[in-house]
Structures are given as C-alpha cells and as structure tokens.
Amino acid sequence: MAKAKRRLSDEQYEAELFRLQAEMVKVQEWVRAEGKRLVVIFEGRDAAGKGGAIKRITQYLNPRVARIAALPAPSERQRGQWYFQRYVEHLPSPGEIVFFDRSWYNRAGVEHVMGFCTPTEHRRFLHQCPIFERLLVEDGILLRKYWFSVSDEEQHRRFRSRVDDPMRRWKLSTMDLESITRWEDYSRAKDDMMVHTDIPEAPWYVVEGDVKKEARLNMMAHLLTTLDYHDVPLPPIEVPERPASTGYVRPPREHTTYVPDHVDTLLS
To answer: How far is Cα 254 from Cα 268, in angstroms, rounded to an integer?
Structure first.
C-alpha cells in the first residue's frame, strides 16, 4: 500500500504563506526601485485555484505597483483588432507588476474549444504567440507563465460545492459547467497549446492544484526562485510629534450624519 502523503498543518501553512508574502513585498520594492516590468500569467482549468493563488500573492502588495488584469469578453470593436492588441495596453510600465487572471491564452483554450474563434484564428494564434512573447522578453519584460492543473474528480467536487454556497455561487458560470462535458476537448487544446508556446524564452510551469494550499505555496516559492531580486534599503521614516493646538474647535457632533452603531446591536 502506498504511503499517504503528509499534509501541512494549518499553522505550518499560515507561517509559510506569510513568509512567502513577505518575500513578495521585497520583490515589489525591487521591481519599483529597479524599474523592472514583471508579468505573471495564471492559466488552467476552471476551479483549479488560480484566483485563490492571486489573492494570497497580492494580499500585502501595493495596488499602485502590483495590479491584476482580468479582462472581460472582448467588445465588438476589440474583436476587429489584432488579437493581442487589447492585452498590450495592460502590460506593465517600469516599476510595475501585472498578474493576468487568464490572458491571451483564452484563444488557445475556451475560444478554441467553444467555437468563439475560427480554426484559422486559432492556428494564427499558435503561430504568433511565441513571436509575441519573445518580443516581450527581448524588450526586458520578465514573463512567467503558470498552468494550474486539477483532476476531473476534484474539479467536479469544487463545482458541486459552489452550487449550494451563496457566497461562491457567482463563481459557477454556464461556461464552467460546459467545461465538464468538454473535459477531453480542453485537454487536447491544452496539449496543443503547450507544444507551440512552451518556449525557452517563456516556458510553462505546471502547478499541481488538487490541494489548494500546497498549490499556492509551491507556485509562490517557485516564482521567487525565478527572480534575481534583492532587498531594497528603505528610507527611514519618523512619525512627527503632533504640534500644539492653534485653537481649532470641532463642530458639534449633531451637525454630522454618522453611520449607526451596528456593532453595539451585536453586543446588546
């Protein structure tokens, strides 16, 4: 009988997550100080854990430096543009990090499988994507690509858990349900995508996602190893003493509308 894999305790997970998040803050300061441009792509199956990983990675980051790009379906005008055009405007400027919660790889996955693009458009994407990414890397952008993998059984379990959860039901779309019946179609599309776009300049890294907490830690730890970052000395900060009053008098409280004390009703 195979030995069961040991699992992290909640305390171990939280401690390591916080350590990695602290390192991501160092990465943020390095990117800002050195004028780097970092792009991290999150792709994978529906319910594979991409959103949860992004949430933990960005928890302590400055939204003025690190932002999330989660683009909606293209408009009619955008559908007539060069396919990569609307993604280019979301690329980082010097000193910025962009996390793509799904990306231009929509064309290799959902658009191809669901028939939202033509076979010609799909083939053109597979041809142009490596060229596009080589241009990004050649221009100095640090490009990292992660594919979150999840088994069909675990994906199905996660979908079912969302049905009766009013806080997460919004995450279950008709497109998600369609992915269940098209599991093999998505598998073939992913394999084809990997063949064409797993290039030395921008390789794919696969994250085993059946255990969400482990997937987050594994992905974050790996991302850090791919970046040659260092601690950036921060200028000292002194909180000044409050100066003496110059006679300001606050207006009476009854002249201002305050929110009701909801907490007091909970304590009553």
So the answer is: 24
Amino acid at 220: M
The model's pLDDT over 65-107, given as tens digits with 9 standing for 90+, comes to 999 999 999 999 999 999 999 999 999 999 999 999 999 999 9
Q: Counting beta carbons within 10 angstroms of the beta carbon of residue 40, is it exposed (0 to 12), middle (13 to 18) or buried (19 or more)? A: buried
Within 217-267, strands assigned E span: none
User: Nearest to residue 150, comparing CAs of 88, 61, 64, 212?
Assistant: 212
Contact 33, 232 (CB under 8 A): yes
Q: What amino acid is encoded at 214 in this protein?
A: E
Q: State the pTM of this model.
A: 0.92
